[in-house]
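In the design runs reported in the main text, the only information available to the sequence generator was the tokenized backbone. The following block is the verbatim input for one such run; it is reproduced so that readers can re-run the procedure and compare outputs position by position.
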């Protein structure tokens, strides 16, 4: 339960250094491509292409990449003042899907709020039947539309869960997400201080809608709307990242 988070953290502290991060050292640190979507077993119904991108899920095809690049370039021009689809990641933003099962809207939507393109993240992480699967929906050098005010700089990761409490109960999913985050941090030189929850980006926009994170369509005061993935989830992942860094420094 979220309300018992102090005990949740204490339990994480006891178990993480003895179990989780020992596994990180043995499994993940020996393989620089340790958590690519292509290396993760796909759930039944998922088709993974030769580049590691999801091609379809339950017969629903992932969107056409050329069409996406065209539409996200126009979106970028309207929202960020630069007409480009290219992404050079400097931040990572975490979300939950607010649903159960694979979020088909992330591969088939064509519009959101009467504006193209639809919504799409770079990754979806799902846990089903005790197995965790990582799906990559977009190349990492292509802008997503998942985090208002930060799409121009962020890799977005969606974790399949109904809410924060549901997500906290999915330890294997959270641990896999932590490994993916570490991989991205190392690959792009992203510090842990640039790993955010979706709600935190909304908070920054409320403080200053034209600061480090911004959107040119905001007029007046920005009212935060997002709550995902939750403070307790971010505490769990940040502790995991810091413990992983401690083990690396000891090697």
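Verbatim output:
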């Amino acid at each position: 339960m979220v309300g018992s988070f102090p005990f949740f953290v204490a339990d994480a502290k006891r178990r993480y250094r003895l179990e989780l991060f020992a596994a990180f050292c043995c499994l993940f640190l020996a393989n620089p491509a340790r958590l690519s979507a292509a290396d993760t077993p796909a759930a039944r119904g998922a088709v993974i292409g030769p580049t590691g991108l999801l091609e379809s899920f339950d017969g629903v095809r992932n969107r056409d990449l050329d069409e996406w690049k065209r539409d996200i370039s126009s979106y970028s021009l309207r929202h960020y003042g630069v007409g480009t689809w290219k992404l050079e990641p400097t931040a990572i933003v975490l979300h939950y899907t607010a649903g159960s099962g694979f979020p088909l809207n992330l591969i088939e939507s064509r519009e959101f709020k009467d504006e193209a393109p639809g919504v799409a993240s770079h990754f979806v992480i799902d846990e089903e039947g005790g197995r965790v699967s990582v799906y990559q929906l977009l190349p990492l050098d292509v802008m997503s539309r998942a985090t208002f005010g930060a799409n121009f700089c962020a890799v977005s990761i969606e974790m399949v869960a109904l809410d924060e409490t549901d997500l906290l109960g999915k330890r294997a999913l959270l641990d896999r997400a932590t490994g993916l985050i570490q991989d991205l941090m190392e690959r792009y030189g992203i510090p842990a201080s640039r790993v955010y929850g979706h709600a935190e980006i909304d908070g920054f926009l409320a403080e200053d809608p034209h600061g480090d994170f911004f959107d040119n369509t905001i007029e007046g005061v920005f009212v935060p709307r997002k709550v995902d993935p939750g403070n307790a989830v971010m505490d769990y992942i940040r502790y995991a990242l810091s413990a992983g860094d401690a083990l690396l420094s000891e090697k």
